[in-house]
Design goal:
elongated; mainly alpha; 51 residues
Length: 51
Amino acid sequence: MSDSAAKAATLTLEALLTIMDRTAANLERLQAVWDRASPMLPDGPSIGTTP
């Protein structure tokens, strides 16, 4: 077993839940960024035009 596999095997449930909570929070932040940015992106190729 590799060193990283041994560390993964000793992950506690509490540590895993913490990681999952942080991941969920980051996904929410990313979704908020996408929601703000997506209207500014063109639907197709647009050279020299404003979206």
